[in-house]
Amino acid sequence: MEHSSFLSFVGDHLSQFLSYTAFANFTIGHGIMMIIGLIFIYLAIAREYEPLLLVPIGFGILIGNIPFFPGLKVGIYESGSVLNYLYFGVLQGLYPPLIFLGIGAMTDFSALISNPKLILIGAAAQLGIFGAYGISMALGFTAAESGAIAIIGGADGPTAIFLSSKLAPDLMGAIAISAYSYMALVPVIQPPIMRLLTTNKERLIKMKAPRAVSHREKIIFPIAGLILTSFIVPTGLPLLGMLFFGNLLKESGVTKRLADTAKGPLIDIVTILIGLTVGASTQATTFLTSKSIGIFVLGATSFIIATTGGILFVKFFNLFLAEGKKINPLIGNSGVSAVPDSARVSQVVGQEYDKSNHLLMHAMGPNVAGVIGSAVAAGIMLGLLY
Fold first, then answer.
1. DSSP state of 267
2. Fewer CB atoms inside 10 A, N or C side of the chain?
């Protein structure tokens, strides 16, 4: 009798243990997402596509899609779990401003200060955001969802997370993954568009070297930039304020320790947390939906429109510029805020046609303007739709 009771006890608890394993809770959806996570890791390591982003995101996808028995406080959506606590910074929009603080501390705005008209290219590239908004609305997404999806066109992951956490938290995982994916794929997506929309003569345009920018101008810029942008779009203050504050830390010359912390340990830690938790938020049960597929398609459309808008604007702007002052349209792609990847693409494509044509410093102007532009666009969307 005792022997029988013992075997029953062992059998019941073994059955319970097996029900808690990943094998018992595994679905095809989990397998699909784990393959996607492995692809992200492969692209980061083997192809070096944004490894600082794709390695944490890819590994986070693996973590988020290990099947588990509900109620054990393991999953990212389960209240009280460690992942849920870490995800709080994403849900409440805490991490993106800290990322912007680090970006500001490592960004040199000299190219933009020396040639202010380049900010118009950054503004033109935001057409992708507003174009995708209209398309999303036409496809049946709500106004708030459309605004959150449209920001993907800026190729700015932190801004996409910040805006979607306010407007469409249920879609944040898909929006964030889409935004970071297109940031990583900038060297793949943009060159064909650049070649298609420019002539050989335009690609050979050489621009004058940027003028030297004084230390005083570099200090004035973040202060003036903050006041100007935040007075127009105060809803963008969390991002714009931290961006310009970080830049002032860099340029003031008296806060080197703070600037080094912001652009080093702080942004690295936040990048790890944001990448890992965004990746983990893609649980198959909540991520694999028709809406997620639609978001990826709309994100690609938005990014293509943004790249096209920047290039076509430069071509239009050149109609009013004298010979010798024209802008090479190959820097039009850099109006999106994927810093400095899109500026590097301008340099690489430009040198395919003229090895002596160095476009990198010129492209950094609209590139950093795109960072400001996407934050302003997010502020506009938030002010209109929240």
1. H
2. N
Give the HSE-up count for residue 255: Cα atoms under 13 Å, Cβ half-sphere.
Answer: 15
CA atoms within 13 A on the CB side of 137: 10
| % of the chain at pLDDT higher than 70 | 97
What is the Rg, in whole angstroms, of the alpha carbon atoms belonging to the chain?
Answer: 23
What pLDDT, in 10s, does the model give residues 328-382? 999 999 998 888 889 999 999 999 999 999 999 999 999 999 999 999 999 999 9
The tokens 């605004």 sit on which residue? 147
Amino acid at 87: Y
Q: What is the pLDDT of residue 251?
A: 97
Burial class (CB in 10 A: 0-12, 13-18, 19+), 182: buried
C-alpha angle 91-306-331 in degrees, rounded to nearest 5: 120
Length of the chain: 386
Q: What is the mean pLDDT of residues 201-228?
A: 94
Query: CA–CA separation, 3 vs 176, rounded Å?
Result: 56
The DSSP code sequence of 165-221 is: HHH-GGGHHHHHHHHHHHHHTHHHHHHHHHHHH--HHHHT--PPPPPP--HHHHHHH
Give the integer Cα–Cα distance in Å for 67 and 192. Answer: 40
